[in-house]
Specification:
360 residues, alpha+beta, 5-stranded antiparallel sheet, 5-stranded mixed sheet, 10 helices, binds iron/sulfur cluster
Amino acid sequence: MSEVIPKRKTDIGPPHYEKFLPPIIKENYGKWKSHEIPRPGVLVHTSETGAKLYSVRAGSPRLLSTTKIKIYADLADKYSDGYLRFTSRNNVEFLLSKEQNIDPLIKELEAIGHPVGGMGNALSSIVHTQGWIHCHSAATDASGIVKSVMDALIVNFKSMELPGKLRIALACCLNMCGAVHCSDIAILGVHRRPPKVNYDKLPKICEIPNVVASCPTAAIRPTIVDGKPSLEVQNDLCMYCANCYTVCPAMPLNNPDNDGLAIWVGGKVSNARHEPMFSKLAIPFIPNNPPRWPEVVDAVKNIVEIWADNAQKHERMGEWIERIGWPQFFRLTGIEFQKVHIDDFKHAGLTFKRSVHLTY
Ligand code: SF4
Ligand code: SF4
């Protein structure tokens, strides 16, 4: 008889999610019949067995200390049998099986400064990347801008008065690990100068073929400088993406005078009503202005207010712009249309307008 080989233990990958499901979700798996949002920040799922699951959503600061995680864990122990989860936009969501625990949980969350809301036709937490706190290629900050914007729009997180869902994202460079390509409003850190090669350091710390291969526009070529293998950048091909800096610290492109932000609009992931959409450029450049970034806050607030005043019920930002047309979007928001708004990327064919039908 062949020997039964015990299942191999591995630490590769996360444990199976089923291990962490609250009992009420396990018992009603595949049986959820409907859901509703009876008030901002509270979602009720009803199962065909009659069971109900109450999710209470609160904003989080995204960068979490262990102290804060312990506070969340204590609240979960007290009100939701120890179960909570984080949404992809960094809200914290407590999964309650007892309706009577909703009000005391909300009271405690608000007492420690965590607004409850972010569901339905509202602004959800603003997802953001690392910014100056952590990432090497950041053209701007992340947490500081998001805090400033969120302070100005907090009423839209706590209520459901907006026409549709509003998702804002921030990525501090155009490698955009922050969902900026598919959010209603995207705040995007941009560099505007090519990398500067440090010829002394480069041969000691970088692998030349890797750096050449890292450039998406083939702007980097091998060369010899002072008899040593090195690299040169063809500036007119560079799109300031910082990919080369990621693999080679001897090619920094951070520049305090020329780094800043761009604002993009109209992206979404959902395929409700309209297929998913990519965001498009609205404001090409706003200089960095810490610690409260007033120009960015005003720009985002202006776009939100114009959309809220003019969109139809449930209409997302991109759907609204598509209905009224881009010329009207620029007219209503007062944003200046510039030549950089014209998409001249070599693969831009699909974005060109091909019909004679004009929307004004
Ligand atoms: Fe780093 Fe860019 Fe990601 Fe920001 S968006 S964390 S700068 S890679
Ligand atoms: Fe190439 Fe991007 Fe580096 Fe420019 S910043 S040289 S486009 S990898």
